[in-house]
Amino acid sequence: MSEEAEQAAKWKMVEELRTKKEHLVVLKSELKNLAETWTEFARAIQSPDLHLFAVDPQKITVGKWGEKLTRPVAEIRDSNVQWDSLAKLVADYQKTADDTKRLQSELNLP
Fold first, then answer.
1. What share of residues in the chain are helix, strand, coil (percent, to 5)?
2. How far apart are CA 10 and CA 48, in angstroms?
3. What is the pLDDT of residues 64-105, one digit of tens each?
4. What is the number of other CB atoms lying within 10 angstroms of the CB of residue 60?
5. What is the mean pLDDT of residues 42-55?
6. Measured between alpha carbons, how far is 61 from 69 in angstroms, rounded to an integer?
7. Is 59:73 a contact under the CB 8 Å cutoff?
8. What is the mean pLDDT of the chain?
9. Which contiguous run of DSSP H or E holds residue 11?
10. DSSP assignments along 43-110, one per residue
């Protein structure tokens, strides 16, 4: 392989690494947001007698017992518990993280 071809291949790998890292930031943010939503909801259902629940087809809103639901303490939507979406998100994260590590290793980057 010529030096020019080798440099082009490395540049392509660097660009792919940059893209993967950007995507990884987005995926981590989605995972973090989902975890925060589930954590808030989990805390509320651990003490159901202290909370008020409003259930509709797309979401469950949780408020403190005796207070209005205008300031909910938690809310979980149907999109937060769909198995296919969760599996796709986690699989995408793992593949992107693995690809990023592989590219960093191939480029001798930390």
1. 65, 15, 20
2. 56
3. 998 888 889 999 999 999 999 999 999 999 999 999 999 999
4. 19
5. 95
6. 8
7. no
8. 94
9. helix 3-46
10. HHHHSGGGEEEEEETTEEEEEETTS-TTS-SEEEEGGGS-HHHHHHHHHHHHHHHHHHHHHHHHTT--
Give the C-alpha separation, 40 to 5, whole Å: 53
With 0.70 as the threshold, say if the pTM is over it: yes
Q: How many residues does the chain have?
A: 110
Residue-wise pLDDT for 9-21, tens only, equals 999 999 999 999 9
Supply φ then ψ for residue 55, to 5 degrees: -110, 130
The tokens describing 68, both together, are 């209005």
Rg (CA), the chain: 22
Q: Do 76 and 37 form a contact (C-beta atoms < 8 A)?
A: yes
Work out whether the CA dihedral 50, 54, 86, 101 comes out positive or negative.
negative
Q: Which amino acid is at 79?
A: S
